[in-house]
Design brief:
Layout lengths: L6 E5 L8 H15 L8 H10 L2 E6 L4 E10 L4 E9 L8 H16 L4 E6 L2 H10 L2 E3 L8 H5 L7 H6 L8 E5 L7 H35 L15 H5 L3
Parallel strand pairs: 4-5
Antiparallel strand pairs: 1-2, 2-3, 3-4, 5-7, 6-7
Helix pairs in contact: 1-2, 3-4, 4-7
GO molecular function, one term: transferase activity
Keywords: Transferase
Protein name: GNAT family N-acetyltransferase
Length: 242
Amino acid sequence: METQHQFQVIVANESHLSFAQIICDEMAASAKARGTGIAKRSPDYIQQKMREGKAVIAFNQDGIWAGFCYIETWSHGEYVANSGLIVSPNFRKGGLAKAIKKKIFELSRQTFPESKIFGLTTGLAVMKINSDLGYEPVTYSELTQDEAFWAGCKSCVNYDILMSKERKNCLCTAMLYDPKDHYEPEETKEFFEEKKSVFERLLRIKQWKLLKPFFKEDKDSNTPSGGGAGKIKSFFHYFFNL
């Protein structure tokens, strides 16, 4: 029989510093298992976010660590990213990721009310969570152009793809919440539910198109190949730039 868990998701502080190492270990293990990239963070960096009140942490009813996420600011505070979302393998598929994302989103809105909140994800599940909060798919050009942010992608296994596309596209899908110009969460949620199968198919197409040139280069290093709209309020306009 599957155990039902209750979780507490709170703003992290100095009392949680000892959890930094396990959080980093789980981030690395998760990225390896999924075969996708993740910007590596050190325990010191995670602890800094806790001290600054820019992170949320989750525990189950027995006080066992269950999940984490933190806030990063870019372009002098114009942009905010909710980064490093991780849920312990023992507590996945129970709605905790959604609860953590909701809490870190609320903390971001409270702490940086004028900032645009953005994220990059390779997964449909996180896209759904973001859509429920009011995020919209956007092109990479609408994200921060802060060099420090993009430098964090260097540790990602897909970094070569990102650079081959001149930072205009990658396997991740970009999503943005603009406090000054946005749809209501009910609208973005409804749209995602209606078009979920289309998004899933487009994600597969995007992955195939972006990875294909690299597969060809692996087969024949002497014959490298590469692939290579006005702003309108359209999800499909934002979704891909292949």
